[in-house]
Amino acid sequence: MSGAHEQKAPLGVAAIGYAFMGKAHSQAWRNVAAYFDVPAVEQRVLVGRDSEQVAEAAARYGWAESATDWREVIARDDVQIVDICAPGWLHAEIAIAALEAGKHVLVEKPLANSMAESERMVAAAQAARARGVQSMVGFNYRRVPALAFAKQLIADGRLGAVREVRASYLQDWLADEDSPMTWRLRKETAGSGALGDIASHAIDQVQFLLGDTVTEVSGRLHTFVGQRPGPSGVEDVTVDDAAWATLSLAGGAVASVEVSRVALGRKNSLRIEVYGSAGALTFDLERLNELEFLDGAVPVAEQGFRRIVVTEPEHPYVGAWWPQGHVIGWEHTFTHQIRDFLLAIRDGAAPSPSFEEGLQVQRVLAAVEESAAAKSTIVQL
Amino acid sequence: MSGAHEQKAPLGVAAIGYAFMGKAHSQAWRNVAAYFDVPAVEQRVLVGRDSEQVAEAAARYGWAESATDWREVIARDDVQIVDICAPGWLHAEIAIAALEAGKHVLVEKPLANSMAESERMVAAAQAARARGVQSMVGFNYRRVPALAFAKQLIADGRLGAVREVRASYLQDWLADEDSPMTWRLRKETAGSGALGDIASHAIDQVQFLLGDTVTEVSGRLHTFVGQRPGPSGVEDVTVDDAAWATLSLAGGAVASVEVSRVALGRKNSLRIEVYGSAGALTFDLERLNELEFLDGAVPVAEQGFRRIVVTEPEHPYVGAWWPQGHVIGWEHTFTHQIRDFLLAIRDGAAPSPSFEEGLQVQRVLAAVEESAAAKSTIVQL
Amino acid sequence: MSGAHEQKAPLGVAAIGYAFMGKAHSQAWRNVAAYFDVPAVEQRVLVGRDSEQVAEAAARYGWAESATDWREVIARDDVQIVDICAPGWLHAEIAIAALEAGKHVLVEKPLANSMAESERMVAAAQAARARGVQSMVGFNYRRVPALAFAKQLIADGRLGAVREVRASYLQDWLADEDSPMTWRLRKETAGSGALGDIASHAIDQVQFLLGDTVTEVSGRLHTFVGQRPGPSGVEDVTVDDAAWATLSLAGGAVASVEVSRVALGRKNSLRIEVYGSAGALTFDLERLNELEFLDGAVPVAEQGFRRIVVTEPEHPYVGAWWPQGHVIGWEHTFTHQIRDFLLAIRDGAAPSPSFEEGLQVQRVLAAVEESAAAKSTIVQL
Amino acid sequence: MSGAHEQKAPLGVAAIGYAFMGKAHSQAWRNVAAYFDVPAVEQRVLVGRDSEQVAEAAARYGWAESATDWREVIARDDVQIVDICAPGWLHAEIAIAALEAGKHVLVEKPLANSMAESERMVAAAQAARARGVQSMVGFNYRRVPALAFAKQLIADGRLGAVREVRASYLQDWLADEDSPMTWRLRKETAGSGALGDIASHAIDQVQFLLGDTVTEVSGRLHTFVGQRPGPSGVEDVTVDDAAWATLSLAGGAVASVEVSRVALGRKNSLRIEVYGSAGALTFDLERLNELEFLDGAVPVAEQGFRRIVVTEPEHPYVGAWWPQGHVIGWEHTFTHQIRDFLLAIRDGAAPSPSFEEGLQVQRVLAAVEESAAAKSTIVQL
């Protein structure tokens, strides 16, 4: 059956997962219509494994019902949208089943834990798209107003030819070596460490901002804290806690990427610097309402990075919120994402980032791993 | 009748006003229970003068119904809380009626446009409180986590004896002299200009942070753009667009206050600096997730203002939201305010800031006006 | 005899005082010709009261000789310039004698400790000027490249009509209440405290940047630490350690000034913010190589305070130093001052700031004191 | 013959080169004794190729004489110190001859243009040292007070085990693609581009701060502007204008390095971030009087990067200058360098960084080039 955009009835949404991402997506579903003109939606059902906990989360986050079997839920006629916030190893199975059931699918990043899964998801998305069923991967930072505005400036040529990008994503929640073992630190469950979790965001941003594609990669992975206390004694950490990469882009730019979960003092610091022949930009997610822009067209004596408070009606998304200078929070990257997802569904258009774009990020991540395993030797994509 | 805290049934809320403040308060009512353990509430009715517009706003912001007559609404048995977001000149009448009807009342700041009204409101609040009916004035910036944390540090003696406070609230939405005349620029409707609108916040913060009371005031008011285009020709602006004051506090500190709506480039910049004998603090509302703290107990070679990203579980309010470094927005000052209001109702306790505290701010504002009219000569409170 | 500008022989310089200011002026005399094309000068003699210490200082700071009697020194034929770094209470006597002896005079700020002295100095300077003998008062911050550039931007109309100035000068060297008594804390020797010492700089900057004159003043003085340990027991501090003022300027701007020596964590922070109808500026002496400029002519979505690193050849003074981005230090405000003083002597022109300009600052300081003594009531100048 | 430290007569200094570095070194020689207690020195002779220009520079920068033949100068009995500011390709020849002539030698970085030259210089330095003749390579940024203080903090264990270092040195003087060809852009004269010029500083800092040695390297070089206008038509640029490297250190840390001369808007921005298990540091040469320090020993709610204004008497070097908060300039890194060089000569001790340390940096640079030529594959040192 076809997409939901002809419908007058509200779109029914099912969300799978109620932890960190489920909480963040729920707030977006609960609030999007208060700020944006989007098709009507209803938070129909929240899905989780523990029936008691998911019921409590559903009540708290505004869902009409809860359930424990995602297969039953995606079969429901009153569900038109499936929002997958489950761990990465479940993405492929659920997303493919949902798309085949004719449901629009939003899946959290990274697309999947493996290239094989990612490729199957792309195939399913392409088939579904032909039937008017849409899909999107949740690189929510594309919807930070400052970064969306940065992309506009670059696309408008305000930076000239982009030469260098410096992207880093530094956190410190694993800086303490006594911080305990979790599934996120085992390769079999997490796929990778900082690489998949946060380098994926940094790499997506590089490609998004430049509207360009990575063509070759040199990479390195490292685990600074190699063992951590587990429930039954000390365990080996089998994923990276920091990663480095140098990326070539098709258009000639070079990007460096550095990510870490042990960078003490950095809480959630995705920093991006873009240097072009005619301008430059910097951004830090810890100050997500700000963008620094240097305009090379200004006389040199007056040049400088200007701190733009990205809260003007002219800026992307943010006019829907509050008057100038009244800053928004991290959570609204999800609100904006769902706004764009819903508008794409309404218009029968393919939302971006598509699964194909998610797969392209996975390719870069895989190349970083391949290079890291081969003494950082450059890998072509 | 008594307070609502014994009730098991949800507390019914009526909000009066659906413009800027109504929108902000609505999001708080819609979301508070998703993040905080508060008594159950229901957004029963939104009240406004234009029946069509208020109906649309009610639908958008999550209210079950809309209405145009606030008197009818405060008489309803299914309404236990009245949230007043109407313009200042209506505060007294509505608040007093609601309190007399046994409804808990939250009223936006400033408490009222005149001292006389403010005093009547305080009397009504005191009478109601004796009957278990609570009231609160909406100085929402007390619930910025960084400022609540600042207050803790000061109360814990980390700054020693506070000597100087520098408070400024700078905006630029009236910087353009062609910006048109509005009711906010006429004394008869607005009471005052930047003074009542934003100096009230700055003054409340000074008293809140220090836990102290202003005892004398020297003030000055100025209107830089004296005429503006109105619908039928040029009109005189009859309120201040900037104000300055020097305040003495009972405990010996001196505070300077400067506010402006014509400070080009400042969007919503409430900046506060506090200097004590043992430490210092700085804050800027445009970066509301951050607090700068200098600890004088540290060896001098290591002293410096440290930028604390106020997003840790240990910080006030913010543990309910997202992991560290995931910043929140301006709007959640209202969410926190309603959380505290609801908890006070549940506990039968008087929430703060009380109407008395709102009146104390009004007294300072009136003293600034009095001093300004008398060549800045100091006025005792 | 006449000014030195026809001479081919080097100008002989005598400096009086070898403490903090003497050290700073010495480096300027020692280095100015290495960077700027100025008339040849020779550091002939350094004068101080203690013959041994002044001899050592002279050797260290590059002076050919030392002496203890300033009257003898200003009588010497090989001295054409007298640079007065002695304490304020000696300024008038030395400066007037030197001018009458036909010597060009540079005197440290503030011009003098009293209005009467200042007025006599102005009379002497006017008489000397008629004979080609120049004089200057050392408001060295006029020669910070960033502030000189700020003045250019304002003079060029880039800020439009200036409305508000916020000037503060915060230090913390007296924050510790156990810091001992000194002559600087006694009214009879120091004249005033933070007011004369640092508010003088702030007030001079306001008038300098705007090219305007203060016409009325409301002021306040305060002493937070009223007693300090002296050599023979606890003594009363008889000068202010903090001061506040609101200033009206002839052109319609309003400036606030706040200075303190007890603002813990602020080392030498002269901060200036200027808000105009078309642009805005901010500056902090602790980052003296930077100027923040907001250009209101830029589309609003791109507006922001831009951090200009003031080290380009196009910027005032700084092209003589190092390549861009190689920052200069505080001391070179004196080097630039002496460069301009020497060029004025060479050209037979009156250097700025003149003694008249120094007197104008004294008038404002006196008005602050007068207002402070009269409950902050506005005083007209 | 032996070192000069027993002498009572002033040490005679000859400097070779009077361009950018010669000007900077001259100011250090001219001023060092005014601030530090060092052996007496005399600026005897400045050497350059153009007799007229060098004579003018000598007069301007305080040298007693000028000369054009460095061989004659290093043979003079009244010269005890040779300060080499000539281009890199001359370093080896002059330094070796001077050391053999018994002169103490200070040579600008990088040590030489090739490994072979560097090794011969080290051999000469070792032989001379045995005879009491000292040598030093001019990595002047070791003498930035903030970086010297950073090293202290790290050495004192305040950062715990250092894990990650992020070092970048970004400039923009070649950002304009019409900027003309110079000898610095030809491999035969410059050796390399940004790599030797500025990555050398970044790499030296990494090893200096950590007191550690690089053991393996992955590198990349790139030339964004491949052709530039020369005097007789367009020429190929044969050196890099940007470089990237990932470095392993013996102690387990990983450092990333990125340098560029085309990073628009960055004037002279050597930025360093150091993340350890117990603390973190950041620094930017454009704000060289500041160090940011995060102390992980502080309770997490109070942690933050604190901006230390490195101008206290307790801080390295800076107590000799001005009172707190009175910032110093870039040039004084050279003054401090010469102070330490002179003290080492006085004490008969080997100054640091030695030629061996300079050689170690050269080895890392060579490894970066080797890796870059081999698809970024890791090279062991």
Short description:
The first copy, chain A, is of the alpha/beta class. In chain A, about 35% of the residues lie in helices and about 25% in strands. The first copy, chain A, has two domains: about 5-140, NAD(P)-binding Rossmann-like Domain (Rossmann fold); about 145-285 and about 290-330 and about 360-375, 2-Layer Sandwich (Dihydrodipicolinate Reductase, domain 2), CATH 3.30.360.10.
* Full CATH superfamily name of the largest domain in chain A: Dihydrodipicolinate Reductase, domain 2
Order of helices and strands of chain A: EHEHEHEHEHEHEHHEEEEEEEEEHHE
CATH topology of the largest domain in chain A: Dihydrodipicolinate Reductase, domain 2
- Taking the alpha carbons of the first and last residues of chain A, their distance comes to 37 Å
- Provide mean pLDDT of chain A, rounded: 96
What does this protein structure show overall?
The structure is a homotetramer of 381-residue chains. Chain A is α/β, with parallel strands linked by helices. Chain A is built from ten helices and 17 strands. In chain A, the strands form three sheets. The first copy, chain A, has a nine-stranded mixed beta sheet. Chain A has a six-stranded parallel beta sheet with strand order 3-2-1-4-5-6, sandwiched between helices. Chain A is globular and about 60 Å long. Chains in contact: A-B, A-C, A-D, B-C, B-D, C-D. The A-D interface holds A 163-164, 166, 168, 170, 175, 177, 218, 220, 222, 224, 242, 244, 246, 252, 254, 256, 258, 260, 262-266, 275-280, 294, 296, 303-305, 371, 374-378 and D 163-164, 166, 168, 170, 175, 177, 218, 220, 222, 224, 242, 244, 246, 252, 254, 256, 258, 260, 262-266, 275-280, 294, 296, 303-305, 371, 374-378. Strand 16 of chain B pairs antiparallel with strand 16 (305-309) of chain D, so a sheet runs across the interface. Chains A, B, C, D: Residues 12-130 form the Gfo/Idh/MocA-like oxidoreductase N-terminal domain. Chains A, B, C, D: It holds the Pfam family GFO_IDH_MocA_C3. Chains A, B, C, D: This is Gfo/Idh/MocA family oxidoreductase. Chains A, B, C, D: Keywords: NAD, Oxidoreductase.
